[in-house]
Design goal:
- By secondary structure, the protein is an alpha+beta fold.
- It has three helices and nine strands.
- A nine-stranded antiparallel beta sheet has the order 2-9-3-4-1-5-6-7-8.
- Strand 5 and strand 6 form a beta hairpin.
- 30% of the residues are buried.
């Protein structure tokens, strides 16, 4: 069936204030979930799942929940993986400047601004996991797919 979710990668350990600012909402911890539950297509829209290291933050939200990340200090990436609809979305900002935007939908590139980072001829999902490893400097004892994510209510 494939993946169907939206995510945000930050090249730093995002504190609670940054997260509240990003989502323009208060957040409240609910529970821990595994990777499969975090990427489940039928998850509650008003939640965000997060795994953090000293060097990075990965947040997973429901499919299609795109946020305005243009006013963020530092490096931030927003992506959407929808294998069911064959749609993939990527945008990266560095210190409030758009570095790369790439949207691929049903066999066509609908937007392609900037260059590098995401390459057309490579698997989109694999490229996202490589970026997550780089941002998180994946020093987990197990791989990302075995991690527990903290679920927050927005």
């Amino acid at each position: 069936m494939g993946f169907n979710f939206t995510g945000i990668l930050i090249n730093s350990h995002a504190d609670e204030q940054k997260i509240k600012s990003l989502f323009d909402a208060e957040i409240a911890y609910i529970k821990e979930v595994d990777f499969d539950e975090s990427t489940d297509s039928f998850r509650d829209e008003n939640t965000v799942d997060m795994v953090q290291t000293e060097t990075g933050t990965l947040m997973i939200t429901g499919l299609g929940q795109i946020y305005d990340i243009s006013d963020f200090d530092g490096e931030i990436i927003q992506f959407m993986i929808s294998d069911v609809s064959d749609t993939y979305y990527f945008e990266k900002y560095k210190d409030k400047v758009l570095v790369r935007k790439y949207i691929y939908s049903q066999g066509e590139i609908t937007e392609d601004e900037g260059n590098g980072i995401i390459k057309e001829n490579e698997d989109f999902t694999d490229q996202i996991w490589e970026l997550a490893d780089r941002y998180l400097q994946n020093n987990f004892k197990t791989n990302l797919f075995d991690q527990q994510f903290k679920r927050y209510q927005l």
